[in-house]
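@channel sequence for tomorrow's demo:
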Amino acid sequence: MEHTLIVFKPDAVMRGIVGEILTRFERAGLKIVAAKMLQPDYQHYFDHYEGIGTLKTRKGDEIFESQLRTMLQGPVLAMVLEGVEVIDTVRKMVGDTQPKSAVPGTIRGDYSHVSYNAASAAGFGVSNVLHASADAKEAKKEIAHWFSDAEIQSYTAVHEVFTQPKPKK
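structure tokens (generated this afternoon):
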């Protein structure tokens, strides 16, 4: 099974929409194998967004610093989800990084609408509700950055009991 990291950003936590969004992932058959609420410091976000995601390198200091200011506004809820091709599934469910471009029915399309230009004019990063790993390589690094191995749980969800092949006698 594949794992991916999602981080409910401060705007999702402070708006009280985490439960609604999490329900969408669970309804899709994705399993929560790790979760914690925390308020990381600047260095933690620096390591996440530049050390792993190279945001500063790709987009420049202004966008990078505005993203970190946005993330430092409040607590986040970090989770590891497990499922078959979970990274691609979550990326489809989440929608485009720029909320105004996210189609209705995606999480960002339903819960946010800000453009890069509007966020930049306000001096903040885009409030786009959550972060989701882009690919398997990034997911592995991000999960190790946010969680220890001991924090990742293994269990059988009810729906897995009914979808597993029965052993042959």
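heads up for whoever presents: The two ends are 25 Å apart (CA to CA).
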